[in-house]
Amino acid sequence: MSTDRSIVLFDLFGVIARHQRPDALGKMAARCHTPTDAFTTAYWACRPPYDAGRQSAPAYWTAVLRRLSLSVDADTIEELRLADIDSWSRVDDRMVTYAQSLRDVAEVALLSNIPSDHADAFLAAQPWLHDLDHVAFSGKIKAAKPAPAAFHHCVVAMRAAPADFLFVDDREENVRAAQAVGMNGHVFTDRDELAAAIDTWLPTRGLTRK
Question: What is the model's pTM?
Answer without folding.
Answer: 0.93
